[in-house]
């Protein structure tokens, strides 16, 4: 059979529960305060931007590494069989732009 509680025990229990309830209400008030909500939203947005920027950096770094591997051998020497055709195509395209530009100026 459970022990009978004294009035002092009951009063101490009530005081403790009031204190716990006050702490819970204070926590709820802080959580629903507009500044807290705005701060949480800003932090979440910043984390999303950081994560997205990190992913973009990794993707760009991977693309640069892959492109470099296409034109440079593992020992650091250029792969001429790939560099020369790209250089010739680049010269032809730039030359074509200059030719078209000069042609338009003459008109």
Automatic annotation (TrEMBL):
Segments passing through the bilayer: 83-102
Q: In its keyword annotation, does this UniProt entry include Transmembrane?
A: yes
Q: What is this protein called?
A: DUF3618 domain-containing protein
- Give the matching InterPro entries: DUF3618
Judging by the UniProt lineage, the source's domain of life is: Bacteria
Tell me the Pfam families matching this sequence.
DUF3618
**UniProt keywords, alphabetically:** Membrane, Transmembrane, Transmembrane helix
């Amino acid at each position: 059979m459970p022990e009978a509680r004294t009035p002092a025990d009951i009063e101490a229990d009530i005081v403790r529960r009031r204190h716990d309830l006050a702490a819970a209400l204070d926590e709820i008030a802080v959580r629903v305060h507009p500044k807290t909500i705005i701060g949480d939203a800003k932090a979440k947005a910043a984390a999303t931007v950081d994560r997205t920027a990190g992913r973009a950096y990794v993707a760009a770094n991977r693309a640069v590494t892959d492109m470099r591997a296409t034109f440079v051998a593992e020992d650091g020497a250029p792969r001429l069989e790939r560099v020369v055709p790209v250089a010739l195509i680049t010269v032809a395209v730039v030359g074509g732009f200059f030719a078209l530009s000069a042609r338009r100026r003459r008109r």
